[in-house]
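Weekly sync, protein design subgroup
Attendees: M.S., D.O., the rotation student, P.L. (late)

Item 1: inverse folding check
M.S. brought a backbone from last month's batch and wanted to see whether the design step gives back something sensible before we order anything. D.O. pointed out we never logged the input encoding, so this time it goes straight into the notes. Structure tokens as presented (198 positions):
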């Protein structure tokens, strides 16, 4: 079903963490297919050369360090704290033990650092390139992801509070999103808001 799409692998025995990260990655990079593996041997059997990036639990990287060191540009180590990264400084890392907003922010920074302006990424499918939101909805979305509450948005845009609530509902419905984190990812990845403003 997703033939032709670039693929990302998550290699971690923690099923809940893997499922959460998979959902976030699919929101951040909808052009990617994300596969999950509970062990290095499962991943190896699937054919590692198929994958664009590997998001890997720290213990798996440490147990297979020579293999991952050869592919350090493709490897992102999943750490439990920021201090864990010192022993694996040759790799990019992602701290998964932090609030959702901070995790989304760090993930977006990783993507922008590695693939700024979309370089090295395949083109978005045509359906995802279409402008779905009106100009006013884009303004409202930008303010939502920057942390403004409905009343502040109404005041900034000189519109009624009920109008903001309606725009907010329409934005979520049009994009099929249920959380501000997903909306934040969409806004940053489509260039509607600078990551440094969230």
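Designed sequence read out in the meeting:
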């Amino acid at each position: 079903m997703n033939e032709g799409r670039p693929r990302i692998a998550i290699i971690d025995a923690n099923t809940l963490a893997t499922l959460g990260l998979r959902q976030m990655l699919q929101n951040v990079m909808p052009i990617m297919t994300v596969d999950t593996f509970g062990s290095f041997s499962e991943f190896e059997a699937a054919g590692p050369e198929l994958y664009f990036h590997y998001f890997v639990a720290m213990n798996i990287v440490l147990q297979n360090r020579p293999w991952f060191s050869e592919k350090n540009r493709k490897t992102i180590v999943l750490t439990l704290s920021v201090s864990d990264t010192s022993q694996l400084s040759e790799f990019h890392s992602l701290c998964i033990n932090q609030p959702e907003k901070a995790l989304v922010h760090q993930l977006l920074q990783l993507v922008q650092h590695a693939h700024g302006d979309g370089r090295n990424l395949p083109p978005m499918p045509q359906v995802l390139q279409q402008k779905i939101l009106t100009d006013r909805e884009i303004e409202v979305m930008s303010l939502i992801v920057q942390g403004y509450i409905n009343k502040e948005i109404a005041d900034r845009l000189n519109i009624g509070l009920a109008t903001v609530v309606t725009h907010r509902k329409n934005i979520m419905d049009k994009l099929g999103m249920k959380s501000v984190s997903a909306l934040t990812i969409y806004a940053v990845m489509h260039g509607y808001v600078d990551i440094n403003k969230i």
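Discussion: DSSP finds ten helices and five strands in the chain. The radius of gyration is 18 Å.
Action: P.L. to compare against the previous round before Friday.
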